[in-house]
Specification:
By secondary structure, this protein is of the alpha+beta class. The protein is 33% helix and 24% strand. The chain has a single domain, classed as 4-Layer Sandwich (Glutamine Phosphoribosylpyrophosphate, subunit 1, domain 1). It has eight helices and twelve strands. It has an eight-stranded mixed sheet with strand order 4-3-2-6-5-1-11-12. A four-stranded antiparallel sheet has the order 7-8-9-10, covered by helices on one side. A hairpin with a 5-residue loop joins strand 2 and strand 3. Bound molecules: aspartic acid.
Amino acid sequence: MAEGHSPVLLVHGGAWAIPDDMAEAHVNGVRLALAAGWKVLERGGSSVDAVEAAIVVMEDDEAFDAGRGSFLTSDGRVQLDALLMDGATLRAGGVGCVERIRNPIRAARLVLDESPHVYLVAEGAERFAQEHGLPLCANEELVIEREVERLREVREQAAGRPPEFFAEHDTVGAVALDSRGKVAAATSTGGTLNKTPGRVGDSSLIGCGCYADNESAAVSTTGWGEPIMKLVLAKWAADRVQEGMAPEAAAGMAIERLETRLAGHGGIILLDARGRHGLAHNTPRMAWALKSAHGEWAGIKRPGP
Ligand code: ASP
């Protein structure tokens, strides 16, 4: 292992009542993502590269609401959001509402590396990604039959009601600490099922669904995006760590705040530059995987002691 720090990688694959028949796919998915990210850290690579590698694996995995296989908008399209943030420099790259990019986290990385801006959306983001070597695809290539059926069902049930509350949250996220002692965070999502076209959720917004600062923590959230956004939840949790709270306590407090202040639901992962991590959710299950010098864990954690 290169240099002085002992790397840590923590990934999640959404927080909701993951049914038993989907549990294995979720645990396998986060395990594979962990392996890909760890490969980068193991050879002395950066935390930014590690979280990107982990997210790409989950975007390519149809079990999750990211990349191909994501939830559909109310008009049956895939619209993706992603953010990547470097905790050492506070450089960040985000994309929102992209429809023709298989791996939006790669586009977010290009924004971080190659753009003077932090956030690009829709066609402009796609054009930028293409100009920087990322091939575009047709939106239909990202749509799968399972999601067409799921949209049909939810639209029948939700007829006449506003598309504001959905209980399934398969967004993916990763936080890493590399051997140079630098943290990074990334989050990628297809958003919420039956969302209004053009809706942007918390996942790709700095400080809401993702945040990283070496002075506080790297954070990724999942869950019902609107309450998470209103509370700027990832930054709120990172601030608690900066004030001296342990990441585990900050994670718990953030989810408690989400629930008590706005009746929100979801999950959060945190990692600080000392390698201390935290995870909390108020949903029945959360898919996650963790690797450090102390070992490797993966599972669908239930809340409570
Ligand atoms: N937070 C995401 C959003 O609202 C959804 C999720 O976590 O699955 O777009």
